[in-house]
């Protein structure tokens, strides 16, 4: 499983799939990751961890991603 960093808070994330998981099956099939790439209506795309995704408002923009910060390993929030 590949790793990268969250565009919002910077925490290390794992990406599902990829060549490393091509021959795995069952419970370890590479379908579990800790981040997802989202494409916003403003035309931008961002790799975000699940805590950052949960902190985003409805109809997020790139400015909202810039305001994300890590609180701890399980939560993120938008900075004021």
TrEMBL record:
Source species taxonomy: Archaea, Methanobacteriati, Methanobacteriota, Stenosarchaea group, Halobacteria
Protein's recorded name: Small CPxCG-related zinc finger protein
